Amino acid sequence: MQDASASPMSSEVTPTSNDSNGPDATEAVVSTHVLVPIEQVHKLRELARRTRIHQSEYLREAVEDLLSKYGRLANGGGEE
Q1: Relative to the CA of 39, which of 1, 4, 26, 62 has its CA 20 to 30 Å away?
Q2: 7, 57, 55: which is closest to 32 by C-alpha?
Q3: What is the pLDDT of residues 28-73, one digit of tens each?
């Protein structure tokens, strides 16, 4: 499942609509391709099905969490 109209390997930036499961209308998104272990794919699909929240929304949240986590460490402000 993909949110953007670009191909999985494309670096094309496409604007998105402002829906409750995607980025703000002012943000541009890029379609990307990642390899994920099959067990994680099954768990993510089941979570999305149960909660009715798109898989892409969970993945964007996970990326944001990682960037926040490692951003603090890169700036010297992380807790140990």
Answers
A1: 4
A2: 7
A3: 989 999 999 999 999 999 999 999 999 999 999 999 999 999 987 6
